[in-house]
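Can't attach files on this board, so I'm pasting raw text. These are the components:
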Amino acid sequence: QTVVTQEPSLTVSPGGTVTLTCTSGTGPVTSGFFPTWFQQKPGQAPVTLIYSTANKHSWTPARFSGSLLGGKAALTLSGAQPEDEADYYCLGYSGGAWVFGGGTKLFVL
Amino acid sequence: QVQLVQSGAEVKSPGASVKVSCTASGHTFTDDYIHWVRQTPGQGLDWMGLISPRGGGTTYAHKFQGRITLTGDMSTNTLYMELSGLNSDDTAVYYCVKEGRSQTWDYWGQGTLVTVSS
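---
Top answer:
Structure tokens for the assembled complex are below.
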């Protein structure tokens, strides 16, 4: 099974910019990995922010964007808000299965 | 507004089976999939498998093959996840998630806590 790796934790200052990344153990992440990003706050179900690399839902705040960066999937948060402190999970499709990354705990401090 | 509403919390004994339901409102299934994802206490998300509600086709994660069965009843717009041979490691919150066309993961159920305890 493919291993998907994310930074365990990151810290961003309020108003700052941070990029979370998602790496596949099988090689460079491409659009065929269909990178998808979720936000989860304590005690709540995850919320889908980005699907298929860079597509946003109607409920996705404009400050979040998705991309491919240097062989990785990336989630960039520009203008961090205190309410963005949460766990972020990457998901991708590889080898006929969907695989989650281990998640990144994002602190806004 | 699409909503996925899951059944309530369950407490099961080791070796038992559990069946969790996920009922969709505000949506008619066409080219969608429903995925099942679990989260053990304090841990990350784990993909369990998917079902095509309209066609009934399923794909299971290797980790759960032999223990998981995904089914659906389109007359009630309800999907089911049954997990057998429960042990304490299966104590987790189980979620259903909808995937629409073009790998559009969107709506999540509220989650169902399954506790396995003797």
